[in-house]
Amino acid sequence: MKKRTVFFIIYMILLMLPIYWMLNMSLRTNADILGSFSLYPKNITFANYMKIFTDSSWYNGYINSIIYVTLNTMISLVAALPAAYAFSRYNFIGDKHLFFWLLTNRMAPAAVFLLPFFQLYSTFGLIDTHIAVAMAHCLFNVPLAVWILEGFMSAVPREIDETAFIDGYKFPRFFLTIFVPLIRSGIGVTAFFCFMFSWVELLLARTLTTTDAKPIAATMTRTVSATGLDWGLLAAAGILTIVPGALVIWFVRNNLAKGFAMGRV
Amino acid sequence: MDKWKDNKAWFLVLPVFILVAFSAIIPLMTVVNYSLQDIFGPGQRVFVGTEWFQEVLSDKRLHDALWRQFLFSGLVLLIEMPLGILIALMMPKKGWAASVSLVLIALPLLIPWNVIGTIWIIFTRPDIGLFGAAINSLGTAFDHTARSSDAWITLMLMEVWHWTPLVVLLAYAGLRAIPEAYFQAAKIDGASTWATFWYIQLPKMRGVLTIALLLRFMDSFLIYAEPFVLTGGGPGNATTFLSIYLVKIAVGQFDLGPAAAFSLVYFLIILLFSWLFYQVLQNVGKGEKA
Question: Which 8-state DSSP code applies to residue B201?
């Protein structure tokens, strides 16, 4: 076996260890976890998973997160597509500044901004709705989407646009039927990154929700009680938080692997 | 080729501008407002000018946190960028192995940040955690809650474990985008592996690596949930990074004025460095024929 393959396999094993440990804990009772060190679960129990799937305050957390993350991914993509096209094809007043300004929205430390955020969304009566979290997450996902898509679009030769316009295509029809299919892979990759960053964000999501749209990451803090953490339950919930994102990346894996033939991201 | 000049392109950008500005501008102005006033309660506020800024800028503990933050982000970039590129170069290029490794590599990125900290608490516990037990069986008394060097090592390991995959994914994507013809040409010229990397792969990855570096810099400079959960900023103040100190002021002491001034300074530091990185990466190697 080649040396690089060996290194890569070692890296993959190290990468999987903490996740394996979480899986190991999720299949044991809390008393068992705290009682003894064990490399693998000796008495496998699915009680932790059963609790999550049967207790509505638990599984609603997942449903809420999936709803606002999906909403956010869709809004980000729909808004970012035309904007990225403009940045990749046109010179216009303030284009460079606007492009960098977009990214500056990822740079503010959240702590103090939470209060004005809460006030702003209260004013519009949006607190504890999925759309509020989806909108708030646009702050960091839309700029990222524009940056990634712009790279993909710049890699598409402009002759394609020119030919289509000479053939009499109007912009909306050209964009939707010719251009968007050309950058399918870029859209897949962008969707994954939007999904991921919205999925793991906690501070904004927690601030803007109380019960009806409470995200799973906030629900998980409930495993802390007077008697300490329920590690087994927390680990099971942690394993389940990975599943939706893993499905998303499974669907876009081919775009990442080969469709990138045109992008510079 | 030059881009088309047309200010009507603004119409395409407008939705994004409105969407982002809605969430960005009013909160930012509110924080600027806080930073210039002393707020006693609803309707009771006094304009204090730059007083909070002066107070914040002369805060010794803030300076300490700032240097700690620079050290942390510096280490993060120095470790994660080369490591990420290296892993991406070693990754399988096609077939089921490529698919499986892509999915596995993305897994750490998908765990909510507070959960990351919690997993590592138990992962590093000497009695029931795999890492803690392994390192203690080597004969060292490793304890990230007692010794600051151990806390730093644990945090760096966690950070590298958590975020190197982002660099790997982006670098891998960039590598796959290089047309095969370049490698054939390099082979004919008898270029070494190193030369191929330095003159073909690295320049072609400029775009992805710019985004990876900016994202890693911003997010590591803003890191909060993971160290807060894992070490709580301790032992002592050894891992009190800027955002942890900021939350102490804003929530712990409820000093909205200084906290707002702090936030703005914090924001400007990130802005300045991101701009510098961006400018450098846009222009590096431009003169060469790469």
Answer: I
Residues of B in contact with A217 (CB under 8 A): 112-115
Q: Which domains does chain A have, with CATH numbers?
A: 1-45 (no CATH), 56-262 (1.10.3720.10)
Query: Contacts of residue B206 in chain A, CB cutoff 8 Å?
Result: 264
Supply φ then ψ for residue A92, to 5 degrees.
-145, 165
| ipTM of the complex in this document | 0.86
Domain chopping of chain B, boundaries: 60-283
Residues of B in contact with A105 (CB under 8 A): 20, 23-24
- Cβ-nearest to A112 among B115, B214, B260: B260
For residue B38, the surrounding DSSP H or E stretch is strand B37-41
Query: What Å distances lie between residue A100 and A75, A207, B164, B274, CA to CA?
Result: 20, 27, 24, 10
Q: Which two tokens stand for residue A126?
A: 């949006």
Candidates A86, A116, A256; nearest CB to B102: A256
* Contact list, A200 vs chain B (CB under 8 Å): 109-113
- Picking from B6, B10, B13 by the largest number of A CB atoms within 10 A of its own CB, the best residue to mutate is B13
What is chain A's pLDDT, residue by residue, as a tens digit (265 residues)?
Answer: 688 889 999 999 999 999 999 899 889 888 887 777 778 888 888 888 988 888 888 888 899 999 999 999 999 999 999 999 999 898 888 888 899 899 888 888 887 788 888 888 888 888 889 999 999 999 999 999 998 888 878 878 888 888 888 988 888 899 998 888 888 878 888 899 999 999 998 888 888 888 888 888 888 876 665 566 788 888 898 899 999 988 988 888 877 655 444 444 3
Q: Do B103 and A4 touch (CB under 8 A)?
A: no
Considering only the beta carbons, identify the residue of B4, B106, B161 that sits closest to A91: B4
Size of interface A-B (CB pairs under 8 A): 284
Whose CA is closest to B290, among B187, B203, B227?
A: B203
> Cβ B172–A108 below 8 Å, yes or no?
no
Q: Which class does domain B60-283 fall in?
A: mainly alpha
Element (H, E) at A206: helix A203-207
